[in-house]
Design brief:
The protein is of the alpha/beta class. Helices cover 31% and strands 23% of the residues.
């Protein structure tokens, strides 16, 4: 039975005319309105409680969270983390919020601004927003934010500004639509903790489909 025949039978069962413009317009109106669904109470919180929830959920998902007062502390914090973990090569997005940081001049750290490649140890990206409901960060692809940075390196370092924190997923998508009213980015990534899988013998394996470690630098004054 063809798809058309199946839909015709459903239409006949519902006693709906084939050309029902009223119903078509109702669907168009609903899609255009982009009405929000029911929002869980856990995602409807004052700012301070929303931040606490995000930090709690991100930590529970095995992300490492480093809280900073502001972006002026970021370069040193990244360099310290990389040094402690024996990493001397960092790939970054060509994002002015990252390229204009005050990096140390006496470090052996090698920094490259390019898409990530297989074998890269660590990448640094800027999150579009953070979602308190599940401790998730949202990133989108673009000229200055290639998606490869989110998945190929073993360690993914993400910068999150406190001002971008939202409660539920719906608010994150609303912000994205406001930024891109005409055409959405080709790829939107919602990342909750490092990559993992328990498909093989039900043993948890980190880094199964992406980074083994996810490090979030939360900037509180932004």
């Amino acid at each position: 039975m063809s798809k058309a025949e199946i839909f015709n039978r459903i239409r006949a069962g519902l006693h709906v005319a084939k050309d029902d413009e009223v119903r078509r317009q109702a669907v168009r109106n609903r899609l255009q309105a982009k009405a929000s669904n029911i929002i869980p109470k856990r995602a409807q919180l004052p700012t301070a409680e929303m931040m606490s929830l995000f930090l709690e959920m991100a930590t529970e998902s095995a992300a490492e969270v480093i809280e900073l007062s502001g972006r002026n502390e970021l370069a040193q914090a990244v360099e310290n983390w990389l040094s402690v973990n024996g990493i001397d090569h960092l790939v970054t997005a060509n994002d002015s919020n990252l390229t204009e940081l005050s990096w140390s001049t006496d470090t052996t750290l090698i920094r490259e601004r390019r898409p990530a490649q297989v074998g890269d140890e660590a990448s640094l990206t800027n999150a579009f927003c953070a979602i308190a409901e599940t401790g998730t960060v949202m990133l989108y692809s673009g000229e200055h934010s290639p998606t490869t940075l989110n998945f190929l390196p073993d360690c993914h370092l993400i910068v999150v500004s406190a001002s971008t924190l939202v409660g539920p997923y719906e608010d994150a998508w609303s912000r994205l639509r406001e930024k891109f009213p005409e055409s959405m980015p080709r790829t939107v990534n919602l990342i909750t903790g490092p990559s993992r899988s328990a498909d093989i013998e039900q043993r948890l394996q980190m880094g199964a489909h992406g980074p083994r470690r996810l490090i979030i630098f939360m900037l509180h004054d932004e």
